[in-house]
């Protein structure tokens, strides 16, 4: 019933019990998982996971923190991998002004190259945006990202930012921080996003929801995000699970 739109189940944090974590997700009602490979190290294991489990799909791309390491050969590799039917999008891509690991101009160029590739391949894009709201929106507009749309992953911006993203054919996805008691702005934005543009995720092993905050996150915990979203919108858990799953299948062009 639940569609988990953003996981990193190939992360080293799951090396000891990955199969059990995936089994727990299924027990918690997760029917589909989109797993993200975002650099030279994580893309191969992401693809392997998608080939191992029929309900796990892959998104591949280049994270802004690793932008300085991306070559044209890497971009060609991503394009080649995208022909695999288990690859349903490109990313996560974008800008990260919090971690000073790649120069801003390099991040922007890598971001632009990936948007152009996504338009060439007609695949949705998954956006990583940390402390860079206006620059992300500007690049999305300039590179005509509305042609493919995608996901504003683990959204943390204002309603004004969300509106601009919605106007460019993007879905707004919320993760564990939505469940935090002090998450005033995310809750306000989640209350306003059109129901047909809402998505849920974990970003596991990071951003663990209440009541497990501070511990390792896992895909089964997406149920807590769904519960919070249902409360915010005045819907039942089952209704919210169905709505967000239908939205994700539409975006990724997956049959129920």
TrEMBL record:
GO MF terms held by the record: DNA nuclease activity; hydrolase activity, acting on ester bonds; metal ion binding
Taxonomy, superkingdom: Bacteria
Keyword Metal-binding (UniProt): yes
A Pfam match: TatD_DNase
Binding site for a divalent metal cation 1: 6, 8, 92, 203
One cellular component (GO) term of this entry: cytosol
InterPro entries noted in UniProt: DNase_TatD-rel_CS, Metal_Hydrolase, TatD-like, TatD/YcfH-like
UniProt keywords, alphabetically: Hydrolase, Metal-binding
Entry-linked PROSITE patterns: TATD_3
Binding residues for a divalent metal cation 2: 128, 153
UniProt keyword Metal-binding, yes or no: yes
NCBIfam families: YchF/TatD family DNA exonuclease
Protein name, UniProt field: TatD family deoxyribonuclease
Species of origin: Brevibacillus gelatini
């Amino acid at each position: 019933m639940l569609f988990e739109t953003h996981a990193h189940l190939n992360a080293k944090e799951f090396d000891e019990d990955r199969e059990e974590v995936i089994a727990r997700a299924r027990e918690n009602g997760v029917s589909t998982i989109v797993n993200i490979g975002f650099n030279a190290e994580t893309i191969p294991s992401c693809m392997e996971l998608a080939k191992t489990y029929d309900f796990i799909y892959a998104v591949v791309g280049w994270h802004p923190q690793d932008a300085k390491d991306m070559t044209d050969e890497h971009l060609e590799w991503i394009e080649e991998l995208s022909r695999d039917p288990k690859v349903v999008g490109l990313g996560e891509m974008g800008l990260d002004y919090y971690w000073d690991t790649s120069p801003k101009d390099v991040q922007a160029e890598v971001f632009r190259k990936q948007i152009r590739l996504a338009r060439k391949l007609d695949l949705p894009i998954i956006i990583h945006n940390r402390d860079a709201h206006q620059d992300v929106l500007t690049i999305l507009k300039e590179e005509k990202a509305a042609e493919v749309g995608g996901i504003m992953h683990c959204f943390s911006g204002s309603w004004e930012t969300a509106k601009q993203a919605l106007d460019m054919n993007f879905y707004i996805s919320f993760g564990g921080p939505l469940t935090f008691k002090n998450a005033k702005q995310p809750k306000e934005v989640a209350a306003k996003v059109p129901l047909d543009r809402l998505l849920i995720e974990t970003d596991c092993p990071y951003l663990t929801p209440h009541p497990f905050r501070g511990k390792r996150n896992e895909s089964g915990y997406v149920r807590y995000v769904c519960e919070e979203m249902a409360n915010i919108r005045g819907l039942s858990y089952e209704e919210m699970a169905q709505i967000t799953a239908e939205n994700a299948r539409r975006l990724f062009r997956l049959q129920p």
